[in-house]
């Protein structure tokens, strides 16, 4: 099984598929799954863009690549995607359209849900393990999306922060065998004293 991993592509989802297609052509091997560790830049409309994404998009329009190429069907994009068979599975970062993703997530019960017009990009729900199988091999991926709030921030007031129901899922996981922990943030206090997620520390322990 061959897995490609990306992070912080900020709208450039098409580039992930193009790079994997190029790699397959040059190596003669097939990629089975693409994992993306947050900040995919999954925005449904320009109204929902956060301040940083809007600012960067003024100088580099590819920052809005997901919005322009994956929200509405485009036969040229589908033609590109048809060159490779694997799907992309991502966890939320802090630069996503969380309100829209919340609405999509509420409609499903499984570990992942599609977010694009071509059913090639799937969001992995926090705290629910996802088992990917290819032939006689399988891979268990556990996702932790969004980020942790700093000590002086109101976590419940912003959708980019991990939500209480997601934290509860992680606490209730028990003993699960996980091959890959896919997350955008780090353990609490790992990078900065007030950053990170206790939930990630709990899973690693």
Overview of this protein structure:
The radius of gyration is 17 Å and the shape is globular. By secondary structure, the chain is an alpha/beta fold. The strands form two sheets. It has a five-stranded mixed β-sheet, covered by helices on one side. A three-stranded mixed β-sheet has the order 6-7-8, with no helix packed on it. The two termini are 27 Å apart. It is built from seven helices and eight strands. The chain has one domain: Purple Acid Phosphatase, chain A, domain 2 (4-Layer Sandwich), CATH 3.60.21. The protein is 29% helix and 17% strand.
Sheet with the most strands, sense and barrel status? 5 strands, mixed
Radius of gyration: 17 Å
CATH architecture: 4-Layer Sandwich
Strand order in the largest sheet:
1-2-3-5-4
Secondary-structure-based class equals: alpha/beta
* Low-confidence spans: none
Looking at the structure, the CATH topology is Purple Acid Phosphatase, chain A, domain 2
Share of helical residues? 25-40%
Number of helices: 7
- Calculate the terminal CA-CA distance, rounded to whole Å: 27 Å
How many domains is the backbone divided into? 1
Shape: globular
Report the order of strands and helices.
EHEHHHEHEEEEHEH
Mean pLDDT: 94
Beta strands, count: 8
Broad CATH class: Alpha Beta
């Amino acid at each position: 099984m061959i897995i490609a991993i990306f992070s912080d592509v900020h709208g450039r989802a098409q580039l992930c598929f193009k790079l994997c297609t190029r790699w397959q052509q040059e190596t003669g091997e097939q990629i089975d799954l693409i994992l993306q560790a947050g900040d995919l830049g999954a925005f449904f409309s320009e109204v929902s863009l956060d301040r940083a994404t809007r600012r960067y998009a003024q100088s580099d329009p590819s920052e809005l690549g997901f919005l322009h190429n994956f929200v509405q069907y485009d036969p040229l994009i589908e033609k590109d995607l048809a060159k490779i068979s694997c799907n992309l599975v991502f966890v939320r970062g802090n630069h996503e359209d969380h309100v829209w993703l919340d609405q999509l997530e509420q409609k499903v019960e499984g570990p992942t849900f599609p977010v694009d017009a071509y059913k090639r990009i799937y969001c992995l729900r926090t705290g629910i393990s996802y088992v990917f199988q290819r032939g006689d091999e399988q891979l268990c991926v556990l996702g932790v999306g969004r980020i942790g709030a700093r000590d002086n921030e109101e976590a419940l007031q912003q959708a980019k922060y991990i939500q209480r129901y997601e934290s509860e899922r992680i606490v209730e996981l028990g003993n699960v065998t996980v091959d890959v922990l896919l997350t955008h943030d780090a353990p609490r206090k790992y990078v900065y004293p007030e950053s990170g997620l206790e939930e990630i520390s709990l899973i690693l322990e």
